[in-house]
Amino acid sequence: MRESRRGRHGRQETQKTLSPSQGGRALRVDRGPVRQLPLFEASGALSRTQTGKPFKPLLKWVGNKQRFADEIISYFPTRFGSYFEPFLGSGAVLGAIAPQHAIGSDIFEPLMEIWRRLAESPGTLKKWYADRWHAMIAGDNVAIYERIKTSYNARPNGADLLFLCRSCYGGVVRFRKADGYISTPCGAHTPIRPEEFARRVDDWHRRTKGAEFYNMDFEQAMEMARRGDLIYCDPPYTHSQSILYGAQSFGLERLFHVIARCKSRGVFLALSIDGTKKSGDMVCNIPIPRGLFKREILISVGRSMLKRFQMQGRSLEGEVVADRLMLTY
Fold this sequence. Notes:
Layout: E1 2-6, E2 12-17, H1 69-73, E3 83-85, H2 92-97, E4 102-106, H3 109-120, H4 122-138, H5 141-154, H6 158-167, H7 194-207, E5 211-215, H8 218-222, E6 230-233, H9 252-264, E7 268-277, E8 282-283, E9 295-303, H10 305-311, E10 320-327
Parallel strand pairs: 3-4, 3-6, 4-5, 6-7
Antiparallel strand pairs: 1-2, 2-9, 7-8, 7-10, 9-10
Helix pairs in contact: 3-4, 3-6, 4-5, 4-6, 4-7, 5-6
């Protein structure tokens, strides 16, 4: 059975309730505020400050959930212990929650170098960005960008990746399957000024005060969770994100096995996964184990970021995407 309702921002959301034969009756979850810093409103959109102004992303990243993180969070349990995000990426949901204790992790070491610097030395992060920004503005922007990209490809590192993800074409960092090299050309836009980036660093440093960051495989991170903890998984999408690091070898089957083990320990799990493409005309067929999840919600995420990159300015009216949010509770 599917239930439809208007989301917190007026978006139409569809909730699928599983029948008893499909794994049991759906559990209802209170939609009060999760644990968060006093910086946020107690019962509003969790990705907005008390002034009502949305906070801005630190990184540009494929699959960034920044614009609808508060909708995802509205389906989280009202109370939980530690928060885990084992496919951290841009960290949008972590930043929106600002939990008292969290473990953010990812298998991609240059990305986690950025997050560790944010926690331990935010001034270093600001300097990394400012040095490369001033070099680009003072010279041939394409040539400087290519020099930074060459530096990264010779020795993958967080300092170069930080600037490349904010200055590449379309904000879509592509990694070659054969060797992991970044292949995205320089963007036509001017990257944000160092002063603006520094403000974002300060904001994100405050939002992630309760977080610890690790470079580790998702299974290792998820095995750390205990009863009452919450894990949010946002893995590479099999239908659209094969250009991401590690996505070519990532397998959902192993993730489903780990989710099942965590669920058996009493851990809450939420999973974002492919839903529909082509404005609803294409449903992504993913073999989800019977009975593993209690609820499925379709959340409209707008036009495809990857298609915007691939179609180079052509109309995206037929490229509206909806994600599936799968819940074990």
